[in-house]
Amino acid sequence: MERLKTEQPKGLTIAGIRKWGMLFLIIGLFGRIILMNRVLGLNTMSSDELLAAMNSGSNVMALVTIALVSQFVEVLAAPIFCLLLAEGMIHTASAPKYLARILGVAVISELPFNFAMYGKVLDLSTRNPVFGMVMAALLLYLYQLYGDRSLKNILLKAAFTIASVFWIGLLRIESGLAILLITVVFWVFRKKPNIRNLMAGIAAMVCSLLSIFFMMAPMSMMVLHFYNGEKGEENRLVSYLFYPAVLLILGLVGVVAF
Prior knowledge:
11 helices
């Protein structure tokens, strides 16, 4: 009797895409937290001091180059997690609960983010990027609530979008505007994958006006091109706690080692 084989779908599942995003984040966060902040101390240097340090030796120049490249790698994770967010809002059984989980991650990540990036637990200068995902998820939830294409709903959605941009600026969320824009593009073109990836790539390139590092963000479409629409197997706890855990670990390594 022949054994029946279950054919696995080709391409990358949600779980597979998330792993790529995690890899990019690890590389980027290592470059920022360890190389830039601890080894080189760029977060405390002026531009003149940085130039003087770079001219002092080839080793410093090499480390600065690696640190900058790692930041370009880090932004590759942004479109990936924006797609995961949009897909999560589309397929979740309860949008409010999904939104609450993301908010929980943002709150949990804030202290490790401050510690890793600025060397102190409390810092009011910026909020961690997960708050940008919270704002994007909330906006998509409101889009769903007012989904009818009536003039009233169109005006309401426009008002919600403007309000989201305002609050991101007011809260000074790191990469918040980029996360909002790319996530909305993924959601708007969710039924047309090829156009979705093209438009998201263009949106990511537009974000380079906010930060030069986003010039590399469209490259992540090479990963998203292989998304097969399947969820895959993954541990929800690991998925949600990955970011604050990496921040905390790298922050502690930076303190102990340097």
